[in-house]
Amino acid sequence: MDTQDTTKNVAPDQSQSTCRPEDVIPKKEKIIYGAADLFGGGQAAFISVILLAFFTDIIGIDAAVAGTVIMVSKIWDAIIDPSMGIISDNTRWSKLGRRKPYMIIGGALIPFGLAFLFAPIMGFGATSKVVWMIFAYIIYTSISSLSQVPYMAMSSDISMDYKQRNSANTYKLLFDVVAAGIFYLAPSLLWTEVTSGNMPYLDFYFIIVFGFGLIFAVPLVVAGFLIKERAPFDLDKKEKLNIKDFFRCLTVKSYLWHLLMYVTAFLTLDMVSALAIYYTNYIGGAASGVVVDLGFMKIKMGSIMIIAPMMVSAAIGILIAYVIKAKFSKQAAFRAGLPLYIVGAILLACYQPDWNPILIPVFAMIMGFGFGGAQSMPWLVFADTVDVAELKFGYRPTANMSGVMTFMRTLATAFGTGLVGWVLGAANYIEPTSADAPLPDQPDSVLTAIRVLLAVAVTLLLTIGFISSILYRVNDKRLSRIRYFNDKRAQVGEEGFTPEEKEEYDKLRKMLC
């Protein structure tokens, strides 16, 4: 593999990043920007953990139908994401900029979206339930896209200096991880209380709408008013929604590898999360009252026995990933723990009822060490990849690229979550008769389906992500040169390059673009 260093003949001062005053992001702004990702990290976590089980075990929809409802709604989400990217790119009517008006509007609507999605419609007829859930999920995903596509574009637009961006996106990542931890654990605990009959569903509903909803909404709205867009853009130029142009960013080689890293990592998490409740109920033994003895306390088996240890070890994994990133590269940090992620999933799939249940959180903890780097690096890589795209196209297709990322992840999640529902339905999954009814015994076919989905999905997806990270070849030294060439080309054009610079410029484009 060609790993030629294109900076070796460049004067040292040219290959270092120098931050211009206008690109500096104050610490307070970084914190506000990062806090806005409580919604991105939190809602993805709790929706992936409970939505499919909510459809099947609370609302009472057939598993295969529930998977289809999620898939249809996600396809809608995938369709509107590109449009939202173009709308954001073309916004000129607000003094707040191109991204922030939609963060404010979308953020304010989040509680309303949750109110529709988790409405207590248990008394509806079967057809009415399905119709309601399709439209409710479409409303929710539309609100999510309204705020999230512009917010994700800010990961590149918040500064033109990659070190400042990395710093700001580190705050974003920190809040994302904290939100993921809280909103994996809290819904899992609440879910156990609801399904065990200790909490009325309406209490659960109001906690989601007014508790989760406000925690998600307020930081986005505040960020919409207080953070700054620093990336320049042409006031007179507007983009049109052209499908061919929208997917043009897929011709950037580095972006393609980055996209595969991102989609495989997050789709793996989506599928593991969707399976967690079913796994602990019917393989872990929650349905039969299994209790996990931790030595210092005893806890009833539930999805928290997978989620909590994963989050704890993931926090450690992220710290390790940052050490690896500093010493090697972001992509090395991404892939370092993936083998542990795979091993942990296979061990969970192999777990048998006569094994000590303490092994379930142990295996989940092994997964978490790999989970940390896989979840933390892709959005740090994104801003770098936008610089590479500018090197190829001569402009920064930030919202377009973030739109394609959400489009691809949404399609993948639609297929992945739908697949879980379809497989469980085909395996003859038996839905509980009501929210507080005892969990039914499941046929062996359902248990086998859960095991196979867990082991095969994690192994296949993360292997693809691992290979993609090897093929992604952007590093900090090359980013310094990319920024240099992007700036100089904007000022004097390619004809202003010296022969040595033109040679280096062409090599970078060939290698990365």
UniProtKB/TrEMBL annotation:
Compartments, as annotated in UniProt: Cell membrane
Topology relative to the membrane: Multi-pass membrane protein
Keyword annotations of the record: Cell membrane, Membrane, Transmembrane, Transmembrane helix, Transport
Span list, region Disordered: 1-20
Bilayer-spanning residue ranges: 31-55, 101-124, 130-153, 173-192, 204-227, 255-279, 299-324, 336-352, 358-382, 411-430, 450-474
Gene Ontology CC annotations of this record: plasma membrane
UniProt cross-references to Gene3D superfamilies, sorted A to Z: MFS general substrate transporter like domains (1.20.1250.20)
GO biological process: carbohydrate transport; sodium ion transport
Molecular function via GO: symporter activity
Protein name per UniProt: MFS transporter
Higher taxonomy: Bacteria, Bacillati, Bacillota, Clostridia, Christensenellales
